[in-house]
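step: validate -> pass
step: tokenize input -> pass
step: predict -> running
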Amino acid sequence: MANTNLATESFGKVNTRFSLVNNLLEYPDQVANILRANENMLDYALIQLLENISEYMKTNNRIDTAHFLKKVINQIQQHLNHHNFS
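step: predict -> pass
step: emit ->
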């Protein structure tokens, strides 16, 4: 039973990360606000997801979207570095 709960919790986090990415892509002019509102989701798993999506976009000639995601990744990394060393 515990494994099922863990799997459900993990699945929920994955869905939340995808929703966050979707919001970033839908509202690129609101990146700072979206990241601030979802500060608890800013982690290295999100960075990895964004990197994977960025690579996917690049291979599908969505270069502008790939660059946008790289900028978001940099913002999140700066945030994490600042908070980890403060």
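step: describe -> Residues 2-85 form one domain.
step: cleanup -> pass
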